[in-house]
Amino acid sequence: MIRGVSTDTRDLRPGSVFVALRGTRHDGHAFAAEAAARGAAALMVECRVATELPQLLVTDTVTGLGAVARAWRGRYCLQAIAVVGSNGKTTVKDMPATILRRAFGCGYGSDVRATWHAKGAGGSLEIVSPWGKFVAAIPLLGQHNGRNALAAASAALALGVSPRVIAHALARLKAPTGRMRLRRGVSALRIIDDSYNANPSSFAAAFEVLAATEGEKVLVMGDMAELGDAAASWHTWVGEKARQGGIDGLYAVGRLSRLAVQAFGARARHFRNQRLLIAALQQSLRPGCTVLVKGSRCMEMDEIVRALLPRRMRGHQSTNTVKPRHEELIRE
Questions:
Q1: Residue 202 main-chain phi, psi, to 5 deg
Q2: How far is CA 28 from its chain centroid?
Q3: Nearest-angstrom CA–CA distance, 280 and 10
Q4: What is the pLDDT of residues 53-66, one digit of tens each?
Q5: Would you place residue 108 in the very low, low, confident or very high pLDDT band (cuts 50, 70, 90)?
């Protein structure tokens, strides 16, 4: 019996079909043996691989995965929640999923509003809705995550989930990897790991969080990708915004990030590659300062976060990710 579908061997459950997707950073076909070792029941592939598992051969695994999803969805008459937007989709997606694991129901649309109260490494929402008033603790950084939680709570309320269950679930949220996750670094550094991706609006939200911290504040940034003709002006804006927001220092890597360094002025440094940047950080960062690490996915800013963590917490690079050397991503 097939018990599920997975595109990532790290979270594959025994009995699942492993779908071998091809991407710019990895090819799922290379992990067929790992999928088999983790208990996969079958594979969906674009070409046959060396394994004894049953293989479903398709022209395109992305299209095949979509066909499976459409067939499964067609078997049930369910209410659906759509999450869209330029950023924050993963965080918002995880919130209603956490709530709905605890309860499910049906209901009608609602007019839901809330007040955000920042506190420590998170905050709380005072939510007012047609189903009553309640307070939910949100263990995630930033008012923008309060807005994300409000969107998730609204969707859950419309599905008939009780305020008590919603508050209980939201209090147990965990920040997704690389998305405004507070981490402890070497020398008592406070690292705000927002390394997964970057665009102007998410930079603005991250600056709000950094500005609210005490002590020395440092921004470590990489380029923002896919901004088209506006790329230069947006990188200049990041430098200006960081300076105006009271950030004490800026360290940058990437061709476009040089513009942010120029806009920031004194106490900003640009590096030709990640290795030189990491070396400078390890020599210059003062104990107890707060470091925001952010850049587009192609800049691999998670490697900088890893270098600033205590050695026992650095772990190993995922076997599911094939990365080029960072120097190959920088073009002077």
A1: -75, -30
A2: 21
A3: 33
A4: 999 999 999 999 99
A5: very low
d(C-alpha 36, C-alpha 156), whole Å: 37
What pTM was computed for the model?
0.65
Residue 166: name the closest of 122, 108, 105 by CA. 105
Q: Which of 227, 226, 216 is nearest to 251 (CA)?
A: 216
DSSP 215: S
Number of Cβ within a 10 Å radius of residue 130 = 12
In the numeric block, the tokens 């919130």 are attached to 95
Sequential DSSP letters for 92-104: HHHHHHHHHTT--
At 332 the three-state DSSP class reads coil
Q: Taking residues 201-210, what's their average pLDDT?
A: 90
Helix axes 89-100, 143-158, angle to 10 degrees: 40
Q: Is the pLDDT of residue 315 over 70?
A: no
Query: From CA 238, how far away is CA 251, in angstroms rounded?
Result: 12
